[in-house]
Amino acid sequence: MNSALFTFLPLGLVITWGILLLLLGAFLPNERRSLLTSIAALGAAVSGVATLFSYQQMLKAGGTLAPLGNFYVLDTFAVFFHLLTLFALLVTVLISSFYLERENLQRGEYFALLFFSLSGMMILASSKELMTLFVGLEIVSMSVYTLVGYQRTSLRSNEGAFKYFLLGSLASAILLYGIALMYGVTGTTQLAGLRDYFLSRAHTPLSGLAMILMLSGLGFKIAAVPFHTWTPDAYEGAPMPITGFMATAVKAGVFALLIRVLGEGLVDLRAYWVDLIAILAAVTMLVGNMMAFVQTSFKRMLAYSSIVHTGYLLVGVTALSNQSNNQAVSALLYYLLIYVLSSLGVFAALTLLSARREAHTKLSDYAGLASEYPFAAFALSLFMLSFIGVPPLGGFFAKYYLFATTLGAQQVLLTGFAILNSVLAIAYYLRVVTTLYMQPTGEHWAQQQARPVAITAVLAITALTVFWAGFGPFNLGVFPGINSLMNWLQTASLVG
Amino acid sequence: MNSILLSLLIFFPLLSGAVLLLLPRRFGAQVRMAAVGIAALEAVLSLVLFCQFQAQPSLQFTEQRPWIPSLGIEYHLGVDGLSLMLIVLTTLFTVIAMLASWNQVEHRPGSYFSLILLFEAGLIGTALAVDLVLFYLFWELMLIPVFFLIGIWGGAKRIQAVTKFVIYTMAGSLVLLLSILYLGVQYHQKTGAWTFNLLDLYQVPMGLHWSAELLFFGFALAFLIKIPIFPLHTWLPDAYAEAPTPITFLLSGIMAKMGIYGLLRISLPLFPEVVAKWAPILSIVAIIGLVYAAVTALAQTDIKRLIAYSSISHLGLIALGVFTWNLSSLNGTLYHIVNHAVATGALFLLVHLLETRTGTRDIRELGGLATSAPIFAVIFMLMTFASIGVPGLNGFVGEFLILLGVTTHQPILGAMAATTLIFSAAYMLWLTQRFLFGPQTELVKTHENLELAPRQVLLLTPFILAVIVMGVYTAPVIDRIEPTVKQYPHSQNIQLHVALPGEALYE
User: Fold this and answer.
1) Residue A201: pLDDT above 90?
2) B60: which strand partners?
3) Is residue A468 within 8 angstroms of chain B, CB to CB?
4) By CB distance 3.0 to 4.6 Å, which of A304, A400, B94, B350 could disulfide with A292?
């Protein structure tokens, strides 16, 4: 088989599986709908294996596969995001099976939409051309709009989807307008072309406007303050597994796009965007923290906490530069990896613990959980402590690596501010742990008995990984360890 | 040359604590037994270390392995005169704290005892780490078990107290992390290599640049919160009062000393010029804190809170010894770390025993205890005298050395610091007068059997011996600390003070 086929194999599989699920959903009798879960999980696994195959081919071809020029390439950066989003998809499918059964929502298009949005994410991670990237982003957005409003009878779900759709379309329009202006200035939509253009020519007011419009559009999609207003409602209204999917896979996909655009296309304009991103990061962290602190709903608090993590990631984005020894990309990828894993774990736990019609999503409902669900409480606390950045958990090393990189890029003030925000964040993450362990147990826990194997497995795997990501650094020779992972991530740098 | 002893000291309690923590709840009694056994073995290990320790200035029993090479992070352990006594104290105190809480923990005893083991591992790791990132790792590992220990087994207002405690210390810790990173970046810019090895970092002078001053305060903040130094102390009375008393005993005895240790190990040698510049102000802050805490102690009606404030006051004196930074004051500081741990620790334990008998710590409800519990009263008085610094007991030696160092350096500061002797005598003696002597209250009259049981006296015997022996025979400790201390003021060729007559007198 030639290498071109391998480049598109994972993407093709994901799209095919999406269509297959849609058809099966239409033709399967109602009582056999649970089969869809297994098929969807199988699809995620098969696509993951295919990605690894094409990664092998990519290594043989010298590190990149680009049969279509820059429109769809496969490099380490892309493979990382393919694997990460596929894992998020697999987890979402596994926890959805329990959720859909409980809420009586089993329908074929649910899984089909998940697969379609994943295909968009793969494009986001793989393309180096602005129009293709935009199409990828729209594929993701359209599917997720629908998924957020999936509980058609729930008012909150509809409200969230509607807000998300309106603001998301506006953001897409702004982004598209920015891309158009950028094309008007440079005459190209290729990221490499943009880079060549700005290497030799000066930044003009028009290209500045184009850049700002593009950044604003992307700011909406990653939920950076002040473009974040849709986030809490959409996160709260969406079905729990979809909230998890949005906070992990969708966020990772859009960050792949942002890192590509800023780190590759506009990297020579760094002097112009770096302060914008820094301000955006600072405001995002601060507002996110303050809003997270006052929430009583656990789900809404997590929405704001994901905004805060967007802020930390933006702090890392400021370290992107055109120097060859730049570690910003690998630091960002490592942070995203840990963030995605711990968020998936948190949402798996919440899916398990919330009751029908999304009852029990208030933080106070979780009082004294530790005595009834010791493992879930332990895992949740582990994730919260990892979010705070307590060593030796993964969150600590992620923060450490990220902030070391930004300090190296002379962003001292911003890094200091990020640390200050990490201090603020302790207050609400810690409140979760104290609620779980140090308060009298609520009565409603005695009745809930369902403990599905899939969710427990997901919890165990994510918790172990977050734990190991910290301890892994000890080269015990048993695990691959953080070193090999970091060395691998370092091959993912975009330029130089 | 890698010795495995130090790793064993850290990972034996860490791993066994983690395993015990994961055991199901029904094994509580067995876990308790196993935990005490492990702690006892650990204490034996630390005594092996103490005996094999050579009186020499450099780090011993070092163990150095690469960890994350691309960031220059190493797994590097070592012990010297600064850390030796802390290790021994930690292991012994852990055993005593476990024995003191033997029958007191009814809710999930297994988790309680395994968390103490994890705490012990964090404390020992902090004292042994030579790499800054490793140090930070253990520094944080110290915090998490305490968070759960206070939060689950503490008093009525435990959640409030523990949240305050964790936010304070984590704020300090994250600033510490930032400082460690920034120091690494500065080193990288100067030399082109990444390292967090303290021995390498000592070699690169930071000078008196503003960034060095900022870094110094970044490091110092975490340590000053942990000690704690006025005005960063507000978490302490709540946390100490709400924690189960054996845990308070560990907090005041060991954890507070880690702040002092951090100053000695990291802040002073890395930024000698900055310390020299700021020492007068820091010393005055330490003295203000010392007096403030002593005066506040006078006003307390809860014995545990009173001893908590006395602890702040004593640590102010110890910190003053650090900032004065000459041979006598540093020797005194390290010696007084042990003294304070012993005397205050014993006082906390006695309060604990009293509270388990009478159910109260309120001075107003207690009185005339000496008649119904003479042995208790005698031991309490002995510890009170040690804490005040009566000559012949250990407290005197430490306070004398610190005050000698301070006075030879700055007579006025010495005079101000010496007021601690008066204040501590005032609040401690007044305390004993109120609750040990005087007329018996209703509560004391109605309770029978207030006297200590023989096994409790046995538990307290090490403290009694330490207080007396260390008061008259200082050589075993001083001989081991001094070589390390001696190289300190000279390690950076900083002429902090001219050779003063006091020092000659001491030598």
Assistant:
1) no
2) B79
3) no
4) A304
Residue A495 lies in a domain: no
For residue B103, the model assigns a pLDDT of 80
B114, B152 contact by CB (below 8 A): no
- Number of separate domains in chain A: 1
Handedness of CA A423, A428, A434, A436 (dihedral sign): negative
Condensed to tens digits (0 to 9), the pLDDT of residues B147-164 reads: 999 988 888 888 889 889
- Give B282→chain A minimum CA distance, Å: 24
The predicted complex's ipTM stands at 0.80
Percentage of chain B lying above the pLDDT 90 cut? 24
Mean pLDDT of the A100-116 span? 86
Reply yes or no on whether the pLDDT at B410 is more than 90. no
- What is the residue-wise DSSP string for B287-316? HHHHHHHHHHHHT--BHHHHHHHHHHHHHH
Tokens of B98: 């476990």
Least confident of A227-241, B33-47, B163-177, B487-501: B487-501
Residues A106 and A83: beta-carbon distance below 8 Å:
no
Mutate to test the interface with A, among B65, B150, B152, B181 (most CBs of A within 10 A): B181
Domain coordinates of chain B in residue numbers? 1-270, 277-507
CA distance A134 to A191: 13
Q: Determine contact: A427 vs chain B, CB below 8 A.
A: yes
For residues A433 and B188, the answer to whether their CB atoms sit within 8 Å is no
* CA nearest neighbour of A389 among B129, B177, B259, B120: B177
Q: Is the pLDDT of residue B1 over 60?
A: no
Q: pLDDT at position A475, please?
A: 46
- Tell me which of A64-68, A291-295, A410-414, B428-432 is least confident: A64-68
Q: How far apart are CA B263 and CA B325, in angstroms?
A: 11
- On whether residue A55 sits in a domain, the answer given is yes
Whether the Cβ atoms of residue B182 and residue A446 lie closer than 8 Å to each other: no
Q: Which residues of chain A are within 8 Å of residue B136 when distances are taken between CB atoms? A: 391
Rounded Cα distance between B236 and B255, Å, is 12
- Asked whether the beta carbons of residue A483 and residue B68 sit closer than 8 angstroms, the reply is yes
- Length of chain A measured in residues: 496
Interface contact A434-B162, CB threshold 8 A? yes
Alpha-carbon span B417 to B283, nearest angstrom: 9
Residue A34: which residues within 8 A CB-CB, separation 6 or more?
A97, A101, A106
pLDDT, tens digit, for every residue of A436-484?
888 888 777 777 667 788 888 888 988 888 887 766 554 443 334 456 6
Backbone CA torsion sign across B180, B181, B184, B189: negative
Tell me which residue of B118, B239, B224, B235 sits closest to B176, measured CA to CA.
Answer: B224
Of A143, A17, A34, give the one whose Cα is nearest residue A454: A34
The range of the structural domain enclosing residue A122 comes to 2-490
The SS3 call for residue B64 is strand
Nearest CA in chain B to A423: B171
Overall size of chain B counted in residues = 507
Q: Which two tokens stand for residue B91?
A: 């292991």
CA-nearest of A98, A107, A119, A106 to A43 is A119
- Mutation for B interface: A285, A411, A419, most B CBs within 10 A: A419
- Interior CA angle at B480 toward B476 and B483, to 5°? 140
Cut 0.95: pTM above it: no
Return the structure tokens found at B282.
């820091």
